[in-house]
Amino acid sequence: MLKISLKLGLYIFSSIFLLETVSMLYLHNHVIQSRINQELESLKSRGNSHRDVLELSYSEGTLKHIGLMESHTDTDVVITNSTGDILQSSENINAEMKTILRKTLPQVPRKGLIIQSSWKDQPYIATVTPYNSDNEYEGYVYMFKNTGEVEELIAQLNKHFLFATVLLLFFMLIIIYFLSKALTRPLIGMKEATTKLSEGNFSVTVPIRSHDELGELAQSIQSLANELNYLKKERNEFLASISHELRTPLTYIKGYADIARRKDLDVSERTSYLEIIHDESQRLNKLLDELFNMAKMDMNTFTISKETVRLASFLETIHEKVLPAFQYKKMQLHLECKEDSSIDLDPARFEQIMLNLLDNALKYSNENTVTTIKAERLPGSINISIIDQGVGIPDEDVPHIFDRLYRVEKSRARNTGGFGLGLSIVKQLVEIQGGTISVRSKLNQGTCFTIIFKGDH
């Protein structure tokens, strides 16, 4: 199986190689054709120069001078009259030249005409230029160049192109090697991180080296690792806390049951111990009920039955139900609900939410304080708040107040009677019914829980 770095390198190499091949072929052909055109134009220019000399001073000496001059160059000249008779040539005329000279010429412009441009399959490239000296002497100046020399020039160009191609491929391979390494290094790091995650090691760190898609992927993996690590710690803490919460009542039950079995106890002592066993059994049963409800909500098997209720009368019922407990503790419980709005919710579950929040206010508030149930209708929402004047929640604990088995009292004093599950269940019950819950608190000043149901009611 090919590694991703090798695959990426092959893809990049294939793409660039194809692009470079097409570009080099186009450039090669274009340069060669341009060079051939330059040679042809140079031939035509030399023919035009000889024409100018003949028209300026036509004589036998001039003809010989032109022939002699071209005999020392890499081009050949043949001068004919208007009937095709050869007047002068720089070299002996061979069969290939004669073939070109016998061609029927079209109307030749004064600037000259290319009569043979094919250098691949012909021994010569050739041009022709007409001359006319005082309307007395007329004819043509033919210029020839051996294509062998042109082919040598093309061969030199091919060598340069081949060297440039090899050099380009060499540097391209080096660049692709380092580029593929640079691109795949973050992916390899992410792969190693996900391997560790699959093995249960969630304390991984994925370096984020860029802000592109790879950086976003690394950030997502890091967020997943952090979340899994948090869930692992939460699970361990959950199991430890549950063990603690179960062990405490079971210890009480076993201990007092052993004492109650003693035959030397009188009836009042045995009854007292049995009451403790009964209370701890109820406490244990309540914990199991809360755990069972939480498990059902986690598995999405927790059902609710919504119905339309009048909010004012519903809150008034709750107020009357819990008021005696507040009065017994010498606390005041106020209800503020100016509008009797209708709202869709599960009455039993929402009553559970309110009783849990009010129970917290009762536990963590002192005598002569006020707790307020406040409901108000705002544009697009209904807000229901429980506001107390209790001990408050420390700032560092507020973000975790809805976590499972999280308790502000780290000592887990039994006189509060809680398990750290109530607010977690409250949050889930609120969200199941389409609402949100938030908390604001100041130490030694009080706490406010606010439930918001969006929409027009």
UniProtKB/TrEMBL annotation:
Q: Which reaction does this enzyme catalyse, per its entry?
A: ATP + protein L-histidine = ADP + protein N-phospho-L-histidine
One Pfam match, by short name? HAMP
Q: Which GO terms describe its biological process?
A: cellular response to phosphate starvation
Origin: domain of life: Bacteria
- Transmembrane in keyword set: yes
In alphabetical order, the GO MF annotations are: ATP binding; phosphoprotein phosphatase activity; phosphorelay sensor kinase activity
* Positions of transmembrane segments: 6-27, 161-180
InterPro entries in the record, alphabetically?
BphY/WalK/GraS-like (IPR050351), HAMP_dom (IPR003660), HATPase_C_sf (IPR036890), HATPase_dom (IPR003594), His_kinase_dom (IPR005467), HisK_dim/P_dom (IPR003661), HisK_dim/P_sf (IPR036097), Sig_transdc_His_kin-like_C (IPR004358)
Keywords of this entry:
ATP-binding, Cell membrane, Kinase, Membrane, Nucleotide-binding, Phosphoprotein, Transferase, Transmembrane, Transmembrane helix, Two-component regulatory system
Coiled-coil intervals, chain numbering? none
Show where the HAMP domain sits: 181-233
According to Swiss-Prot or TrEMBL, what is its membrane topology? Answer: Multi-pass membrane protein
- The EC number(s) attached to this protein equal 2.7.13.3
Chief location of this protein within or outside the cell? membrane
- Where does the protein end up? Cell membrane
Which residues are in the Histidine kinase domain?
241-457
Q: Which GO terms describe its cellular component?
A: plasma membrane
Would you tell me the protein name for this molecule?
Answer: histidine kinase
The major lineage groups are:
Bacteria, Bacillati, Bacillota, Bacilli, Bacillales
